């Protein structure tokens, strides 16, 4: 995002308008990451809002040092998702199947996408937790390989390997379930 560092500096000085611009730029990406990890629309919205509340409260502790603000923000999101999932395993609940797509498609397209999203989520259940984190950060969160590596505390090569093996495993599962997928 152009001027990200200057916006963050202005927000640190108390300019809430600058923080609002950062919020507008990243909310959807943080939400998509949370939704990809949690699978519940309302909880993902709440968690994304909590990410920005924590970011605003902790803005003074952000030090760039070559790390993009987005990596710092997604680290907060990652930690909140982990906490949420831990709490959830202690208090199991029954989820409503919201089947909400992540696009502004027409109702017919939404039904087709929803079925595909449900199948992809099912296939994602066959990969490791680390692979799911990489996929969620890279594709739902829109982070680069470098940013994902910073958030997860891993080297870029490890992120590339996790991403590749995750995509291959999901592809195999979907093909076994009868989907005809084009090879990259």
How would you briefly describe this protein structure?
This protein is an all-alpha fold and 184 residues long. It is 71% helix and 0% strand. It starts with a helix and ends in an 8-residue tail after the last helix.
Overall geometry: globular
Give the N-to-C terminal Cα separation.
29 Å
User: How many discrete domains?
Assistant: 2
Low-confidence stretches: 93-102
Order of helices and strands: HHHHHHHH
Our Rg estimate from Cα atoms comes to 17 Å
Please state roughly what percent of the residues sit in beta strands, choosing from under 5%, 5-15%, 15-25%, 25-35%, 35-45% or over 45%: under 5%
Number of contiguous helices: 8
State the total count of DSSP E strands. Answer: 0
* Structural class designation: mainly alpha
CATH architecture of the largest domain: Orthogonal Bundle
* Largest sheet report: none
Helix fraction bin: over 70%
Which features does this protein show?
mainly alpha, Rna Polymerase Sigma Factor, Chain: A, Arc Repressor Mutant, subunit A, 8 helices, 71% helix
Structure description:
- With 184 residues, this protein is mainly α.
- The protein has two domains: 1-98, Rna Polymerase Sigma Factor, Chain: A (Orthogonal Bundle), CATH 1.10.1740.10; 105-184, Orthogonal Bundle (Arc Repressor Mutant, subunit A), CATH 1.10.10.10.
- 71% of the residues lie in helices and 0% in strands.
- It contains eight helices and no strands.
- α2 crosses α4.
- 24% of the residues are buried.
- Residues 93-102 have low confidence and may be disordered.
